[in-house]
Amino acid sequence: MAHAETIDLAGSCACGGVTFQIEASEIRPVLECHCHTCRKTSGHVWAAFAVHRHDLTFTCDDTLRWFDSSTIARRGFCSNCGSSLFYEKFDHDQISVAAGVLNAPTGLICAGAICTDEAGDYYALAPGLTTVADATLRAEWALA
Ligand SMILES: [Zn+2]
Ligand SMILES: [Zn+2]
Q: How close is the Cα of 100 to the center of ligand 2, in Å?
């Protein structure tokens, strides 16, 4: 999943209270997560790519707040507009970033769907994705 050249991306929450830039040589493609917590926090399906934590720089984090969504990870959101922005495991130097908060063009692709055994009953999975019932693909595709 490594890219040869540096990839530059930028994004923000809906109100601009959180803005960030990414300069990365390695990016994990977008994964959809259909688990209960991702659906609750995002309002539908959480779709995020991942980069090494040091590849992401906050240009503004005035309204950024973190919610410990489990004993292993926390989620970053904007306390003003409510945008779901980040997912970060406590024991891994990698941060997942919501693909929908990036400024276009992203150049990213949505490549997989995880935790599909917890998918909602009101939608169908997109065809063409590598799909797993649990979260194993996230570990498999984790950045080095
Ligand atoms: Zn905001
Ligand atoms: Zn999830």
A: 16
pLDDT tens digits along 49-98:
999 999 999 999 999 999 999 999 999 999 999 999 999 999 989 999 99
With the C-alpha atoms ordered 43, 114, 73, 15, is the resulting torsion angle positive or negative?
Answer: negative
Ligand 2 centre and the CA of 28: distance in Å? 16
Ligand in nearest proximity to the CA of 113: 2
Pairing of strands 84-89, 95-98: antiparallel
CATH code assigned at 50:
2.170.150.70
Average pLDDT, the chain: 95
Q: How far apart are CA 20 and CA 12, in angstroms?
A: 6
Distance 9 CA to ligand 2 centre (A): 23
* Enclosing domain of residue 68: 2-140
What is the distance in A from the centroid of ligand 2 to the CA of 120? 12
Structural domain total, the chain:
1
Confidence class for position 1, pLDDT limits 50, 70, 90 = low
Band the pLDDT of 4: cuts 50, 70, 90. low
